[in-house]
Every structure is written in structure tokens, then in C-alpha cells.
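Table S2 (text version). Query chain:
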Amino acid sequence: MNLSEKLKNMRLWLIGIGTAIIAASLIISHFLIKDLQEEEKNKMEIWAAAMKNISDAGENTTDLTLVLKVLEGNKTIPVVVLDNSGNIQNYRNIRIDPRDSIPSLHRKVSEICSAEKKIRFYLDDADISEYIDIYYDDSLLLKRLAFYPYMQLTIVAVFVFIAVYMLVALKKSEQNKVWIGLSKETAHQLGTPISSLMAWQELLEEKYPDDEYVSEMGKDISRLRIIADRFSKIGSTPENEPCSVNGLLAETAEYISRRVGKNIEVRFAAPSQDVQAIINPTLFEWVVENLCKNSADAMKSTGGRLMLTCGRNEKKIWVEVSDTGAGIPKSKHKKIFTPGYTTKKRGWGLGLSLAKRIVEEYHKGRIFVKSSEPGKGTTIRIEITAGR
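Corresponding C-alpha cell output:
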């Protein structure tokens, strides 16, 4: 099992454990709250019976000491006693604002009555018109307990989110290390054959100084050196410098035009004024070249036109690579920049993901599919801040 699969399984386990904790907490809290509500209801029935004994005390000589202890024993449950006309006869455990006591009391009483937890007893069993209503609400402890599962749910959800985020970051970091290591190793491995090719080129130039193929081979060797330099820069902080975007695109268009089929026309539509940008020329050219090669591959069998354009305004500098190829479905516009995504039989699907990283991380810009229509072509746009 590779690292990616392990991290995926860990995410699933964390989500599953978090869901189980939340579900168990809600179920346990539900039954606990239900039991406490029933217990408080029983207490209030006893309290109501004590109130009735007090009201009947004038007719009896019963010792009321125990009854008074029952009434005084309620120190947590908010309760209000109303007569049959709705007048407040008594209340307990209700916090009122001393600065506005009467209105505050009536507001609190209205809140308790709205809970519709009521016990009624009649002052005269023969006359049902004379009665007392006792309204009560959940105690502060019960209300806190009812709120607790949601607080716990939030804590568990935050914990799972942080854990998953850290796992994703770990996976991304591991992928970056692999790509950086692969890039630097590729640059290192290319160094020796490039040095040998340069030596052979010098010998061939001495023997055949006017041979155009030797000159062309020299250009390809120079291109190999540039490619090796590009790979060596992956993972390192790039050194950006002022550069002519017009000149960079013109060189790229010339290089690509010599290496694509004759059925593909490569053009650079230069703007009237030179576009200057602070970029890393080696890496930025790599991005544009990669886009051009993908466009050329899209027109390999049918032919077409590959167009490079650039421009700037007060805020942005932009570069566009357009082709008349097969196009990209709208559902794949973002997916093409994902590592590993490729439509080619050969390839690792890292070209566009590396291009995205170079544009976003090294140049603080963005790269995206500006427009694409199946059968008509695609335009990919790069934007960087004009001040960079």
C-alpha cells in the first residue's frame, strides 16, 4: 500500500471515528436529557402538591414543616404560580433585572409560560373555577446539558477538519519532495551526456564548419542545457529579473515551429509595444513551451494554427496560447492541471501541473483555460501582476 492509499484510509478512519463519536454523544445526551426532564417533572409535581397543602392549611392543622422544606428545596427549576385570572402569586429561580424589575419579571414569566409546562390544581374540588397554575421551565443545568452535544459536535468536527487538512498537506508535501527529487535527479543525469554531446559538437564543427545540420544539432544541445537548467531550478527559490515577454515568445514560437509538422502553422502576434515583466525567463519559457507542445499534440493529425499573443494593462500582464485543435470539455478545464492527468498514451501528466506551480508559486499569477470548444480549439491564458 503506497502513501497516497494510506493517507486516504486514514482520512476515512478519522471521518468515521468522528461521526461515531458525534452520533454516540447525541444519542446518549438525548436519553440523559429525557431522563432529567422526567425527573424535573416529578419534582415539580411534588412541589405543586406542597403548594396545594399550603393553600389548604387554613382548614387543616397539619404540620407544614416538611411541606415548607419541599418548597424551599427547589433551587434550580424556574417556576411561577398564577391564579385563574393570570396574576402572579409567587415565583422562584427567576433572574430579573433590578433596574427594570416589573417589566423584566413579566418578560421572564411570559417566556416560562410559553414553554407550556404546566401543572394545575383546584382550590376547591367542588368549584373548578378557582384554580392555580404552576408553570415551570428546564433548569439551567438541563439547558447547558442540552447545548453540550452541539458544542462537542463542533469540537469533533474542527478536530477532524484539522486532522484531514494536515494529512492532505502531508500528502502534498510528500508529492512535492518526490517531484523536486525527480527533477534534480533528471538534471543531474542529463549533465554527463550533454557534456559529451557538446564535445562531439565541437569536433564536428572543426571538421564540418559549414554544415547546417551540425549547427542545428548545436541548437538542440543548447536546448538540452536549458531543459536541464529548468529541472535543476524546481524546488529552489527562483531569481526573477526584468525580461521582454515579446522576445521570449518570439524565440519560443521559432523553436516550436521547427519541431512541429508542416501542417501546423505557428505564429506570434506581437503587440505594438514591448511587454516587459519581472519573471524567471528559464521557467516562464518552460511554461509557454509546454503549452505550445500540448497544443501541437492536439493538432498533430488534423493540422491547424498555433497562436501566441501577449499584452498588458495597468494591473496585469497576460500571455495566451491558442490552437485550433480538438478542444477540452468544460468538465476538464480545471482537471487538466491536476498531477497525473493526461490523455496521452505516454506521459506522466506532470507538465501542466508543473506549469501551474511555476505560474502560481514562483510568479504569483494564475493559469487557466480561457475558452475551449470541442472541435474548434482552446485558449489557455497566463496572468501575472504587472508590477512583478
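Notes on Table S2: The first strand starts at residue 79 and ends at 83. The chain has eight helices and eleven strands.
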